[in-house]
Amino acid sequence: MQNQLVKSLTIFLLTFTLSSSASYALTTYLYAPVDGGPLSPVTTPKTGGGLNIDPSAPRNSECPVNGQMYTSAEEKVWASRRPIVAMIENMPESRPQSGLNSADVIYEAVAEGGVSRFAAVFYCGVAAQDTIIGPVRSARTHFINLASEYYYPLYTHVGGANCGSSDPKTCTTDKRVQALEQINAYGWGGSKGNDLNQFSIGFPTFWRDYERLGTTVATEHTMYASTEKLWKYASATRGWTNKSQGGKTEWSDKFVPLTFKDDAKEKGSVNKISFGFWESYHQFDVAWSYDASKNIYLRENGGVSHKDRNNDSQLSAKVVVVQFAKELGPLDEHKHMLYEVIGSGKGLLFQDGTATAVTWSKKDREARTVWTDAKGKKVSFNRGKIVFEILPLDNTVTY
User: 359-384, pLDDT tens digit by residue?
Assistant: First the structure.
């Protein structure tokens, strides 16, 4: 009996040791940093590494996305790439987000249930430095319609609204908002597509920062990536650079830039812009305060300063545009919403301390949104970060 007990205990310990060794080896393999540094599946650096760009060099290169001026060295970097359009969430648990202040353009709209989300365009502003972005969240149809203006961008997200069933009779998502199905239908998906869905890529391009986890923060608020990792993966694994997979088409050949201008010499007196997305959802209320000395707008979200986790800077913009769009939904049991950004409508343009009534039009998914003033003339935007705030038609903007 004693010999049998010893034998059983020996087998258990041997099995445990082998299992633990295998688990450790697998964990080491999955989470080992690319640079060979210490094993750390839970740590995200505050900022990425610099790319040896001289910031004091002349700024004579215009960014095609937002008109801001950069060095020729930075232009050389972005000219070999195509824009990243990343879904960044805005739940209170996700704040402060990483990377928003480094985006060239930001679109904000409700994803579902009164909760707003960002589609952030990264191209010129991160040419000089690898930039951590996140928390990355799921795809939604109206953001895909806007991202399409950048002609097969590197659309970065974690899953998305989808049918969830091959049988239409059991599908629980309205066809109009089946984002993942739309991505495939547009030719973005698959192992060689421009769609960078974390579910099909994984570590080390994407990782979870578990330092965010606490008693009230769920895992879905922890997904991160970096701009350099995304561009490296897209180029090395899928063949997407400034040219499409296979090297046939330059993305910028079909991209229509906005019209840009220098800052106005005379500044206006519109000092604060405020609005909400949904009534009673005050955690998502937005206020932009105008700083005339720098000719920029500084953002508050939910009544507090909206910070970027990478450098603790307050989110700023040179231009804030309110786009009023028809709101549809909730469309299904998941409470999915849809904002009709294809079509036409009204808006408000805030720059140089002024407010201007404008109109917008977008004829189809890939067409560029055209902005015009009361006389039908195309609007000129200040050079720098542009934030488009997409609101339901009947929302009130105070300024």
Answer: 999 999 999 999 999 999 999 999 99
